[in-house]
Write a structure and sequence with these properties.
Layout: E1 2-6, E2 9-16, E3 22-26, H1 37-43, E4 48-52, H2 69-82, E5 89-94, H3 96-107, E6 112-118, H4 127-143, H5 146-156, H6 159-164, H7 166-178, H8 181-192, E7 208-213, H9 221-230, E8 234-239, H10 246-249, H11 251-263
Parallel strand pairs: 3-4, 3-5, 5-6, 6-7, 7-8
Antiparallel strand pairs: 1-2, 2-4
Helix pairs in contact: 2-3, 4-8, 5-7
The protein binds D-malate.
The site of D-malate has 7 residues, from loops.
Length: 265
């Protein structure tokens, strides 16, 4: 794990591999780079893999009251600057990592070669969802991350994953429990004000892969399939035996899809 000073905070990140395209892995909420552990192993021999801990998460620290998706996108661009990567990268983001990816496309388009959007959405929040996020931001400061883990875990995984890979569920639970309440609150406030980017999809003409777990209840497969259809150069893949954490729940199928996207014409 390395760190570097970016935009007023220390951003932690893992770098593996020394050849091939740059694969930038951007985690979901409220997680860290460890959710990509299978992909880091699978692709380090063919890609230069960079897996970041967004500000406030994992080993990255921040004291922000709110972190917007734009700010997180700018952090990633500065991180690439700091580690000397100036060529276009493949952005691979899950859920909140996808929300940040849309902003990275808008603000740093020339730095993108391809997009991989996993279990994410283009729509903004309804008023009710945004209110729920603000409530969680308030509650987590008062009560800590335990209720966040309890409310999120059942929605993150397919039923099959709880039976087959309880250790993966337990690891994610520990990641949530280690996350600073302040970071959870800041990201929730930022997600509550993020833009609805549905109208951008027709202009995102980069090669794109949209991946969704068949049992994802948060970003549903039919919604992601519609997003891919609206994008000029996107393909959609629905992975079996996976919910919202598809790359962690079915890394074999995810790896095959990503491999084909990156290395087959
Ligand atoms: C995530 O996995 O990043 C979250 O489900 C995103 C969200 O809360 O919308």
């Amino acid at each position: 794990m390395e760190t570097c000073e970016v935009g007023g905070c220390r951003l932690a990140h893992v770098r593996r591999g020394d050849r091939g395209p740059v694969l930038l892995l951007v985690h979901g909420f409220p997680l860290d780079h460890s959710m990509w552990r299978f992909q880091i192993e699978q692709f380090a021999d063919r890609c230069r893999v960079v897996a970041v801990d967004l500000r406030g998460f994992g080993a990255s620290r921040s004291n922000d009251e709110i972190v917007t998706m734009d700010q997180l996108a700018d952090d990633c661009a500065r991180l690439l600057d700091r580690i000397g990567i100036d060529e276009p990268v493949t952005w691979c983001g899950l859920s909140m990592g996808g929300y940040v990816g849309w902003q990275f496309w808008r603000r740093h388009r020339a730095r993108l070669e391809r997009l991989v959007m996993c279990d994410t959405r283009a729509k903004g929040d309804t008023d009710e969802v945004a209110r729920g996020r603000r409530r969680m931001a308030y509650d987590v400061i008062a009560s800590g991350p335990r209720p966040v883990a309890d409310s999120m875990l059942p929605r993150l995984f397919a039923p099959e994953t709880f039976r087959r890979y309880p250790e993966r569920v337990a690891e994610i639970e520990q990641v949530i429990l280690r996350t600073e309440p302040r970071a959870i609150a800041a990201a929730q406030r930022g997600m509550a004000v993020r833009l609805d980017v549905t109208s951008w999809l027709g202009s995102i003409d980069l090669p794109a892969l949209l991946v969704c777990g068949a049992d994802d209840e948060i970003s549903r497969p039919e919604e992601m399939e519609g997003m891919a259809a609206a994008m000029p150069a996107a393909r959609f893949v629905c992975l079996p035996d996976a919910g919202h954490m598809a790359p962690l729940e079915n890394p074999e199928a995810f790896g095959r899809s990503l491999d084909a996207f990156l290395f087959s014409a």
